[in-house]
Specification:
This protein is α+β, with helices and mostly antiparallel strands. The chain has helices at about 20-45, 75-100, 140-150, 165-175, 185-195, 200-220, 220-230, 240-250, 260-265, 270-275, 280-295, 300-305, 325-340, 355-365, 415-425, 455-460, 465-475, 480-485, 510-520, 540-545, 550-565, 625-635, 695; strands at about 115, 120-125, 130, 240, 345-350, 375-380, 385-390, 430-435, 455, 525, 550, 580-585, 590-600, 600-610, 670-675, 680, 690. Strand 12 (about 580-585) and strand 13 (about 590-600) form a beta hairpin.
Length: about 725
């Protein structure tokens, strides 16, 4: 602490002896000066301003300045070095996080994943074709030299960035008035391909240069070249020289000749445009440029360069799998999740049945849809999807109407209304009023305008009565209907209102078909799946997401209703020669028509409509959808179609034939007896048939008013 120079009580003596005398003298001087200033202050306060007081008392003390020391330059050098080391460490940490060396071995796009059918047949491939990594040191010299000659001749002499190459490219671009050449080295290209995007901003170029230095510091030249050749793009969705050599020439990289290596090296500049499978002439011209560069670089002699011939590629591309199908699009995300991190090509087996898929596509193709669209889903009762059609033409419209579209299900939703009724103790023989009804401000109607009065639930379900479904929804409660739908796997929003009984909420065809599969399986819910390998559920999912068995009584009652719909109801167009169960659905203004049902071990849903949700006059669930369902089922199950109904034949008791006095005592084989208003005929096998007489047959048709359709014949109805 500095001593107070104005402290008069401080002794000037000290053990320092004479060393304190200069300071004591200075102290006395300051005391005298302080007294003089105080006197000036007193005079100024009394009004005498002849000598203004301009200085504070503290100004009287002026501390002696310490001697000036010269600071050495070495200190600044040390500080700068320290800062540089800190920045270097930060940069290394940043690069280690954002650009790990292992990433330079990964392809710039996900490798391909191949989907196979349930029998192992490949059905689709997604993603790039990635070749196996190569070791540049083990490749023939002319293979690596082709890339060095055209891409980076000073590769083995620079440190990741080539100033001469940058200057040369800048001069060439300046002379041409645009970007014609690039100055990127192979190391920079590896940095860009593995770590960066393809934009041309200055920031990206700076990062590219930093990563290039980073790669050069940690990898050898051969390692850098190996990684570059292993993941560079060669067109036709192929990455790496191994994949390109096999794709274009059908051989491995170590078997490439000079011309083939030159052609591959030339593709790097513009792989999509120069791919020889689509632009062989352009690829050959670029091959000649690379050969010339190899001669200029001294890798080939002039004679060797002149002897290189234009190369040929495979006469036709290897057999290509479909790169887009509705089923593959649907299952691919789950297949990638199952495969985990894909480092090489992966193969995942699906549940698709090729035979059933072909049958579905053939059935849809001959359905006569005109401008309407179609969707079909076929699955096993346990949820394994075996066939899927998401539209008439994938190439024209990849939108999957079986999984992505949400449309009103119409009367197919009545499945949940009647299930709720069966759960509350009703049976197919319980009765319901098929009469007009008003619920709140809603008055449902039967589309055909006919009402049967009191009918059984079996009859109401078969003829798809709208008023009966509305009454039943009101009777069992909307919440009970919603619960039945949720139990069977419907996950889309369902409004809490009575109109849901007629299918006013939206649902996907896939989910609706799975709900019907729950009835077929007698367990709910059924989860649609497309992968053969089922992952084990966690303990929580096993406890909370297990299947629930449907009571036998309720299951039998639901089968009773669904069978009646096909045998005698609106679904007669889907009838089969085996036991079949299903339900039709038609939305308002005939916008959507559906048929969903099952037979044996196959559950199938069919939807027909327009993508823009416009009306299709005359379209109903019992029409085209039911016929598509029937035709597919017949092909899939290998069953014969139902024969046309034979004319009614009545067996006649021979004892009831006319007597001899009627001159018809004997009816010969193949003969006829005419009279009494009817005609008897004996066939060659001895059978006797009876029919109207010829005279009655010649009287013409009955009056128009007598030719009404039979009572069970019903036209398409709203919500059918």
């Amino acid at each position: 602490m500095r001593p107070d120079p104005f402290d008069t009580n401080r002794s000037s003596g000290s053990s320092a002896g004479s060393d304190r005398e200069p300071y004591a003298y200075e102290r006395e001087r300051l005391i005298t000066e302080r007294e003089r200033l105080r006197q000036k202050y007193e005079r100024n306060r009394d009004g005498d301003d002849s000598e203004p007081y301009e200085r504070d008392l503290t100004d009287a003390y002026v501390a002696p300045r310490p001697p000036r020391r010269s600071r050495p330059i070495g200190r600044w050098v040390l500080r700068g070095t320290g800062i540089g080391i800190i920045l270097l460490v930060v940069a290394i940490i940043w690069l280690a996080i954002t650009a790990p060396l292992s990433k330079s071995l990964q392809p710039p796009t996900p490798p391909s994943i191949t989907l196979t059918a349930d029998d192992g047949t490949p059905i689709a491939r997604r993603g790039a074709i990635i070749g196996k990594p190569v070791d540049a040191a083990k490749l023939p010299p002319h293979v690596t030299q082709a890339f060095l000659a055209i891409e980076d001749r000073r590769f083995y002499s620079h440190w990741g960035v080539d100033p001469r190459g940058i200057a040369r490219a800048a001069w060439a671009n300046l002379g041409s008035g645009g970007v014609r050449q690039g100055g990127s080295t192979i190391t920079q290209q590896l940095a860009k391909n593995a770590f960066l995007d393809s934009d041309r901003t200055a920031t990206r170029k700076i990062r590219e240069a930093m990563i290039a230095f980073w790669l050069e510091a940690w990898l050898s030249k051969d390692e850098i070249l190996s990684r570059y050749l292993s993941n560079v793009y060669f067109g036709d969705n192929t990455y790496g020289i191994s994949a390109a050599a096999k794709h274009y020439f059908g051989r491995t990289p170590d078997k490439l000749n000079v011309g083939q290596a030159a052609m591959l090296a030339g593709l790097v500049k513009a792989p999509s445009r120069l791919a020889p499978t689509s632009n062989l002439e352009g690829a050959r011209k670029r091959e000649a440029v690379v050969v010339g560069a190899m001669v200029d670089a001294g890798f080939l002699t002039k004679a060797e360069g002149d002897s290189v011939q234009p190369q040929r590629v495979l006469g036709s591309r290897p057999s290509q799998l479909p790169n887009g199908t509705y089923f593959a699009d649907w299952i691919l995300p789950e297949a990638r999740d199952q495969a985990g991190e894909i480092k090489t090509e992966a193969t995942v087996q699906t549940t698709l049945d090729p035979r059933l898929q072909r049958a579905a596509e053939r059935t849809v193709a001959r359905a006569g849809l005109r401008d309407a669209q179609v969707a079909l889903v076929a699955m096993r009762p346990d949820g394994r999807v075996v066939a899927m059609v998401g539209g008439k033409n994938y190439a024209k419209s990849p939108f999957n109407r079986a999984t992505q579209a949400r449309r009103q299900p119409g009367s197919t939703f009545k499945l949940f209304v009647y299930l709720a009724a069966m759960r509350q103790g009703m049976t197919p023989d319980s009765t319901i009023e098929d009469r007009p009804v008003t619920i709140g401000d809603w008055t449902p109607k039967n589309a055909d305008g006919r009402y049967q009065g009191t009918i059984t639930l079996r009859q109401a379900f078969a003829r798809s009565s709208n008023v009966a479904a509305a009454r039943l929804t009101q009777q069992v409660g909307v919440k009970a209907v919603i619960k039945a739908a949720r139990d069977l796997g419907i996950s889309t929003p369902i409004p809490n209102e009575a109109t849901i009984g007629l299918g006013t909420s939206t649902v996907s065809l896939l989910e609706l078909t799975a709900a019907y599969a729950a009835i077929a399986r007698e367990q709910y819910p059924v989860q649609p799946r497309g992968l053969a390998d089922v992952r084990e559920k966690g303990w929580y999912q096993s406890l909370t997401g297990g299947a629930t068995a449907m009571p036998d009584k309720i299951h039998g009652e639901m089968l009773d209703l669904l069978a009646a719909s096909i045998r005698t109801g609106t679904g007669r167009g889907a009838n089969l020669t085996v036991d079949a169960f299903g339900k039709t659905g038609t939305t308002s203004d005939n916008k959507d028509a559906l048929f969903v049902g099952f037979a044996r071990d196959l559950v199938v849903g069919v939807w027909v409509g327009n993508d823009d949700n416009t009306s299709n006059p005359g379209l109903s669930g019992g029409g085209i959808p039911a016929r598509i369902w029937r035709d597919f089922m017949q092909s899939a199950l290998g069953i014969a179609p139902i024969a046309a109904p034979a004319p009614a034949v009545e067996e006649v008791d021979p004892d009831a034939l006319p007597s001899d006095d009627q001159d018809n005592s004997v009816l010969p084989l193949g003969g006829e007896i005419e009279g009494l208003g009817f005609n008897l005929k004996m066939g060659q096998d001895g059978t006797i048939s009876v029919g109207p007489s010829r005279r009655d047959r010649q009287e013409g048709p009955p009056p128009r008013e007598d030719r009404r359709p039979p009572e069970e014949e019903q036209g398409p109805d709203e919500g059918q």
